[in-house]
Design goal:
The longest helix is centred in the last third of the chain and has 25 residues, at about 155-180. The protein has helices at about 20-35, 65-70, 155-180, 195-200, and strands at about 1-5, 10-15, 35-40, 45, 50-55, 55-60, 100-105, 110-120, 130-135, 140-150, 190. The protein has 4 helices and 11 strands; from the N terminus they run ββαββββαββββαβα. The chain has about 210 residues and is an alpha+beta fold. It folds into 2 domains: about 1-95, no CATH class; about 110-200, Ribonuclease H-like superfamily/Ribonuclease H (Nucleotidyltransferase, domain 5, 2-Layer Sandwich), CATH 3.30.420. It is about 25% helix and about 30% strand. The strands form 3 sheets. The protein has a 4-stranded antiparallel sheet. The chain has a 4-stranded mixed sheet with strand order 10-9-8-11, covered by helices on one side. Strands 2-1-3 form a 3-stranded antiparallel sheet, with helices on one face. About 10% of the residues are buried. InterPro entries: DNA/RNA_pol_sf (IPR043502), RVT_2 (IPR013103). This is Mitochondrial protein. It holds the Pfam family RVT_2.
């Protein structure tokens, strides 16, 4: 469910998630004593995300956000592009994927794991590398990033190790968040790496 809260200084939207209806009601009553609140009902739209559910799980879509973005760019009538794209294409409209959604299956395990990668001196002007990672909870992709690194790496191992560190930080935060949400991880989190040197450096050994 979603609720709207208002105080003298700001307004906020809030999601309440629980399998205990009484706990939800008690929290609503508590908030109602301190803030002006409005119950918006079952969660359907939040922070640019359209949320729907079925017996198979939850579906998240950014169709409205993407359409608004295309409208501001005046490219709603442009032809769609298939993927993977030509590497020389810098921007392409997403008209062909407006109806696509991320599925969070009700039958999937809540096991957290991730993949990461990095190029080396890939940027043509400043020679900085790019970090990329994607993190899954079961079958669902829940976090991803692709960003240029802040400094120039002197080897492919260095650029991969920087990407490894960034992905690890994200996994640590998600591990904490899942623990707070009462979905703790029962086994070590697996982070997939394809660079042998970065794996060796990550081992708990002494390096000079």
């Amino acid at each position: 469910m979603t609720i709207f809260t208002s105080s003298n200084s700001k307004n906020d939207d809030m999601i309440i998630a629980s399998d205990d209806p009484q706990a939800i009601y008690d929290l609503q009553c508590y908030l109602g004593k301190h803030f002006e609140i409005k119950d918006l009902g079952t969660l359907s739209y939040f922070l640019g995300l359209k949320i729907s559910s079925s017996s198979n799980g939850y579906y998240f879509s950014q169709a409205k956000y993407v359409f608004d973005l295309l409208s501001r760019s005046s490219i709603t009538d442009s032809a769609t592009s298939s993927t993977p794209l030509d590497p020389t294409v810098q921007l392409t409209p997403f008209n062909g994927t407006l109806g696509h959604s991320l599925q969070f299956s009700s039958h999937s395990s809540l096991v957290l794991f991730g993949f990461f990668d990095a190029d080396w001196t890939g940027h043509p002007t400043d020679r900085r590398s790019s970090t990329s990672y994607c993190i899954y909870l079961g079958d669902a992709l829940i976090s991803w990033r692709s960003k240029k690194q802040h400094v120039v790496s002197r080897s492919s191992t260095e650029s991969e190790y920087r990407a490894l560190a960034d992905a690890t930080l994200e996994l640590i935060w998600l591990h904490w968040l899942l623990t707070v949400m009462r979905a703790p991880q029962r086994s070590p989190i697996i982070l997939h790496c394809d660079n042998c040197s970065a794996i060796q450096i990550a081992h708990d050994v002494f390096h000079e």
